[in-house]
Amino acid sequence: MINSVLNQRYEILEKIGDGGMAEVFRAHCRVLNRQVAIKALKQQYVNDAEFVRKFRKESSSAGGLNHPNIINIFDIGEELVEGKTVYYIVMEYVDGWTLKEEIVKKGKLSAQQVVVYGSQIAAALAHAHSHHIIHRDIKPQNIMITKDGIVKLMDFGIARTTNSQTMTMTSEAMGSVHYFSPEQARGQVTDEKTDIYSFGIVLYEMVTGQLPFDGDTPVAVGVKHIQGEFLPPSKWVPNIPVDLERIILKCMKTNPVQRYNNMDEILYDLQKVGSGNSQVDIDDDNSQTRVIPVQVREYDKVEQKPVRQVKKGESKVSNRKSKNVKKKKDRLMTILGVLVAFALVLGAFIVYQNVLKGGLGSNKIDVEVPKIIGKDKAEAEKLLKDVGLEFEVESTVENDEFEPGQVVSINNTAEGNKARQGFVVKVSVKGESDLVQVPDLKGLDEEAAQKIIEEKGFVPGEVKEEANKEIEKGKVITQNPQANEKVEKNTRIDLLISSGEEETVFMPNLDNVDINVAKKQWKMQGYR
């Protein structure tokens, strides 16, 4: 496959991945001059109609999804290469690594990083679910992380629409056993709740670096999913934020009914954990998911001593003690009454502030996160503040697709998601640089080119002319420095301008002609 060209367009450069049913290559698109990823079905499966159907279904499942946290599908094809049939999918190329690789490298991720990655995964799944696509194979191996920290969900190879038939263990591949849901293990109907369960396990693994269920065989692991007994994340990471653990445990409920209703709810709760200023509202119940308790030491039993009988002469003392106890109880009741009254007054004041005056922030509503990626920092901040959201630059990154100061990514939510007013949207922006990109002036007339040179902070340089039959007269043929080069401001830009097609003239044959006659013919041609 290396050095092959598919569809006279995609030049295969190198192999970058190998899965159960497909190989992945880095390729160059000659038409759009960009890098792409090519996923090719392995040769041992090309004659299996069922495998070919599954492979093609990946492009149809993900091809209709357009989201910054989902790998883009560009093309699909079938071609003979060296006499062998190649089924392939052309996808967005991601220069990065898998979430699994990051977990293995770091052991476990910080709670803040879990919220950042988790929010992006949740946003991607919410988008897929809104288009009635269930992934059904959510695992860290199917989640890419770019060098800028952007999450990309991929591999919709066993995805199904929400109106598909029941899946069984024997009818199709069920994804990775460590991450699939109890209903997948039973061969029951799968829906959005299946992805929610698997997402909970991914969160668990990010937080702890451990898998909640393991076993010697796939069947043994599947049984553990059904039984639903596992150590809580706090057993591995005692300082895990309580609300983050509650989110994980709710996602991993054995009974689908007791999980979150949808990914939007999870995203909303993750945003609250990320903001650190609001408690997650999760109903605790005794569901079928049983968390294995951590062992605690037994305390010694309290020795019961016999009750001493009151002697006859002690009755008055006992009465006095009883009266003293009664007085203390009366004083306590008085204090409690004052406290209750104070609480009622305080409650009335809060209600007045919140409801009648709209104070204390209770009038905040959920709003849609506006589109700010690619916007300048100031413009992005204004767009967010206009809808009641806060803006924070969390990091600066290098990215050739953006100008310095532009928003490259949102780190704790996504464009189009709902967020409560006051929520802090954390972003990464392209760092400011002393170098600027040279504009492309080719094909412009000289006046327009010089204007752009000055507007961009460069200095007009030397202008030369040259005959050129392809470039219209007065237009720029080439420039120095070349377009898109990174140079310092105030750099001089030289231009080569077309003088049009070189004029050709008829030269008379003057061989053996008298000199005087030759001069006359020469003048007749317009020459001196």
How is this structure best described in words?
With 528 residues, the protein is an alpha+beta fold. The protein folds into four domains: 88 residues, Phosphorylase Kinase, domain 1; 185 residues, Transferase(Phosphotransferase), domain 1, CATH 1.10.510.10; 65 residues, Trypsin Inhibitor V, Chain A, CATH 3.30.10; 92 residues, Trypsin Inhibitor V, Chain A. Helix content is 33%, strand content 22%. It contains 13 helices and 23 strands. It has a six-stranded antiparallel sheet with strand order 1-2-3-4-6-5, covered by helices on one side. A three-stranded antiparallel sheet has the order 7-9-10. The longest helix is centred in the middle third of the chain and has 42 residues. It is elongated, with a radius of gyration of 36 Å.
Features:
528 residues, alpha+beta, Phosphorylase Kinase, domain 1, Transferase(Phosphotransferase), domain 1, Trypsin Inhibitor V, Chain A, 4 domains, six-stranded antiparallel sheet, three-stranded antiparallel sheet
Provide a short characterization of the protein structure.
With 528 residues, this protein is of the alpha+beta class. 33% of the residues lie in helices and 22% in strands. The strands form 8 sheets. A 6-stranded antiparallel sheet has the order 1-2-3-4-6-5, with helices on one face.
Tally the helices: 13
CATH topology of the largest domain: Transferase(Phosphotransferase), domain 1
Strands, count: 23
What proportion of the residues form beta strands (DSSP E)? 15-25%
Average pLDDT, to the nearest integer? 79
The whole-angstrom Rg is 36 Å
Unreliable residue stretches: 158-175, 294-321, 349-362
Order the strands across the largest sheet as they lie in space.
1-2-3-4-6-5
Name of the level-1 CATH class of the largest domain: Mainly Alpha
Q: Main sheet?
A: 6 strands, antiparallel
Number of domains: 4
Backbone shape: elongated
Architecture (CATH level 2) name of the largest domain: Orthogonal Bundle
CATH superfamily of the largest domain: Transferase(Phosphotransferase) domain 1
Q: Whole-Å distance between the termini?
A: 66 Å
Helix content: 25-40%
Global structural class: alpha+beta
